[in-house]
Amino acid sequence: MMPLAADALLVQEVAPRDGFQIEPAWVPTEEKIRVIDACSRAGFSRIEVSSFVSPKAIPMLRDAEEVFARIARRPGTVYVALVPNLRGAERALAARADELNMVMSASETHNLANMRMTREASLAGFAAIMEAVAGAPVLVNASVATAFGCPFEGEQQADHVLEIASRYLALGVSGITLADTTGMANPRQVAALVRRTLELVPAERLTLHFHNTRGMGLANVLAAYDAGARRFDAALGGLGGCPFAPGATGNICSEDLVNMCAEMGIPTGLDLRALIAESRRLAAVLGHDLPGQVAKAGLNRDLHPKPDFVTQ
Fold it and tell me: Which of 39, 40, 89, 179 has a CB 3.0–4.6 Å from the CB of 209, allowing a cystine?
């Protein structure tokens, strides 16, 4: 895989985990594998495959081991697993995940709702995970959920979010994600927090995770990019949403993001037409409309024939 230019925007595809987890009808294992393999072929260098969480908590992802075992791994692509605890990390290691993603909320209330524990308990669990994976050939990323706002507590102070990021780094994690779990971020807020976070961690180790709940997802991407961020989560078709965030609709849409980058001359290394085709196919498989726009409207360069009555 060719390295991307310094001004490139790196997209991590999260539909197989974050997208499918709240689908109302069971997504067959074969379909999950097919989507992941299609994403690998389209050029994604990072794909969040599944979560090693209790099947009682998220039944949709109870086939995580089988999915990891059967995907066609592409050299140079990092296949990521979300892990909620030590047991989940052990399962992910056994499944040969390339990276583990741990999640804790900036908001205590949201962490209690999402993880069923306090933030201090979550951090203690993260320390146990880091001890367990010491020496293993695996990366570990830690996410700050509700970093830009919580539906229960409101705005989260930047100093508080940065303190959490610092505690993650002290544990020895290889990357940090700032997550707008409920779509409450705005571009000025994003730019300010990204600039401060980049004083703690380099751009290649910082990921931004935006939802489009209030229509500001791509605007927030541009604000973060202009502030120096280069890695972003996105989901095919704009699938997803946190099960424990009232009204939180899907992630920013992968093909919409890649299309915006293509129009602006920002390289991503991704096959946009392949993403559009996969998004359209996925909508048919899931049996409902997807929030993404480019798959509906087509590309700007896909011109249409003029009307018959126009003669010049």
Answer: 179
User: Exposed (0-12), middle (13-18) or buried (19+): which is 263, by Cβ within 10 Å?
Assistant: exposed
- Pairing relation of β-strands 99-105 and 175-180? unpaired
Q: Sign of the C-alpha dihedral, residues 12, 72, 39, 281?
A: negative
Active site residue 261: no
214-244 residue pLDDT tens: 999 999 999 999 999 999 999 999 998 766 5
Using CB atoms within 10 Å of the CB of residue 220, give its burial: 0 to 12 exposed, 13 to 18 middle, 19+ buried.
buried
Q: 289: exposed, middle or buried (C-beta count within 10 Å: 0-12, 13-18, 19+)? A: exposed
Structural domains of the chain ordered from first start: 10-297 (3.20.20.70)
**Closest to 182 (Cα-Cα) out of 140, 152, 159:** 152
Tokens of 278: 């996969």
How far is the first Cα of the chain from the last one, in angstroms, to the nearest whole number? 47
pTM above 0.90, yes or no: yes
How many whole angstroms separate alpha carbon 58 and alpha carbon 254?
A: 23
DSSP 44-88: -SEEEEEE---TTT-GGGTTHHHHHHHS-PPTTPEEEEE-SSHHH
Cα separation, 229 vs 232, in Å, equals 8
CA distance 92 to 65: 8
Take residue 158 and report the two structure tokens written for it: 């930047």
Of these residues, 39, 242, 253, 261, which one is catalytic?
Answer: 242
